[in-house]
Design a protein that fits this description.
Helices cover about 35% and strands about 15% of the residues. The chain starts with 12 loop residues before the first strand and ends with a helix. The structure holds adenosine monophosphate (AMP).
Length: about 400
């Protein structure tokens, strides 16, 4: 992959596609600027190499129409704070219209080093990846840097189309994601353990299929564990089970056996009679779950076993929580697994995005991890072994 370290930026204008799809409150203030902060290494690198930077991003779903609710104006204000320098905001409903073209001239002649375009999804051509819009974006700059990992699984004009018209490089954020969720797993340090949790087997079936070829062990928790347990003939009471995926679960179990991969399932579980933190918590061995029981976390014995496996692993991918970690009563399984990961010595510790990243932050394990993915859908696709369109353009 070509990364920005391979590019020559001196005196150039660089278009960077970032993922500034940040949450806003009702007064349109940015409530979490992590996505902006995460781009500092890439933006600083390019600025220090002597280039001017134009950033573009989508925000929300304006469906191809200009809509003030989805304007990037609040993002421009937040950028000024994060980068501690002036940002020229091209408030142009056409994204690359007359206003932007005029501003570009001003930008090039001024000392300002950062310019932000309006929401790329104000143009219907964005999601349709129409060449005309891609060409317009490309006409603003000399080089394109793709750093929007969260949008890399979508082939849009600003993530993929523009690369047809400019020399293209991956930003530092993208490069890290591809390294840890892709390349590194091709030749992992062993033992390589994958922690699979969360709500559905069906969402993660392709991740199983891909990583089962590479891993030494799988640790399974979350609601998906109950689909596996039911497939093995256990009574799972009222636990969340994907009834139509029992064959799939058996298929994964058979595949693991065929490949000699150890697949750990819970031996005991905790839960209640309802999906609630307020009804009494109960613990059962998996062959003793009553009909009115809903499993909401892995039990103590399982926590100990999973932790031990993780402490002895050298590459770990965490992909989903072990239980309903949002509830006080059912966070222990997820914490035990996080302790096992954090305590493993000299290991590479990789966290898939979404809920896993949220749990890592909530329980204070952020600093212990080697890499925490910033993507949701894009992280899953990489773990599935897919070549993302936004990565392909950087090859
Ligand atoms: P996912 O988005 O697929 O990674 O799923 C994460 C969600 O799964 C979290 O919100 C958890 O609360 C939920 N979850 C984990 N374990 C269970 C369980 N045993 N029953 C129901 N939901 C669960």
């Amino acid at each position: 992959m070509k990364t920005l370290r391979d590019a020559e930026f001196q005196g150039k204008t660089v278009l960077i596609r970032v993922d500034y799809n940040v949450p806003l409150d009702e007064n349109l203030n940015v409530t979490d600027n992590l996505r902006i902060v995460s781009t500092i290494p890439t933006v600083d690198y390019i600025l220090e190499a002597g280039a001017k930077v134009i950033l573009c991003s989508h925000l929300g779903r304006p469906d191809g129409q200009p809509n003030p609710k989805y304007s990037l104006a609040p993002v421009a204000a937040e950028m000024k704070k994060v980068f501690e320098e002036d940002v020229l905001f091209a408030d142009d409903d056409e994204v690359v219209g007359e206003k932007t073209i005029a501003m570009l001239k001003e930008f090039k002649e001024s000392d300002t080093r950062l310019m932000l375009l309006q929401n790329t999804r104000f143009r219907s051509e964005e999601e349709a990846n129409e060449p005309e819009f891609a060409k317009q974006l490309a006409s603003l700059a000399d080089i394109f840097v793709m750093d929007a990992f969260g949008a890399a699984h979508r082939a849009h004009a600003s993530t993929v189309g523009v690369a047809d018209y400019l020399p293209t490089y991956a930003g530092l954020l993208m490069a890290d994601e591809v390294k840890y969720l892709g390349e590194l797993l091709e030749e992992p340090l062993r033992p390589f353990t994958v922690v699979m949790g969360g709500s559905k087997v069906s969402d993660k079936i392709q991740v199983f299929r891909n990583l089962i070829k590479k891993a030494d062990a799988f640790i399974v928790g979350g609601a998906m564990a109950f689909t596996f347990l039911k497939a093995q003939g256990y009574n799972t009471g009222t636990s969340k089970v994907e009834e139509d995926k029992l064959d799939l679960a058996n298929e994964i179990l058979a595949l693991a056996e065929e490949k000699g991969v150890k697949l750990y399932l819970p031996k005991d579980v905790t839960g209640s009679t309802e999906f609630s933190n307020d009804t009494p918590k109960a613990a059962y061995k998996i062959d003793e779950m009553p009909d009115d029981f809903m499993g909401l976390d892995i039990g103590e014995e399982t926590q100990k076993e999973y932790k031990k496996v993780l402490l002895n692993s050298k590459t770990i991918v965490l992909n989903g929580p072990m239980g309903v970690f949002e509830m006080e009563n059912y966070k222990d399984g997820t914490i035990a697994v996080l302790e096992g990961i954090a305590g493993s010595k000299d290991s590479v510790k990789i966290v898939g995005g979404g809920d896993s990243a949220a749990a890592v932050a909530q329980f204070g394990f952020t600093d212990a991890m080697t890499h925490i993915s910033t993507g949701g859908g894009a992280s899953l696709k990489l773990l599935e072994g897919k070549l993302l369109p936004g990565v392909k353009v950087c090859l």
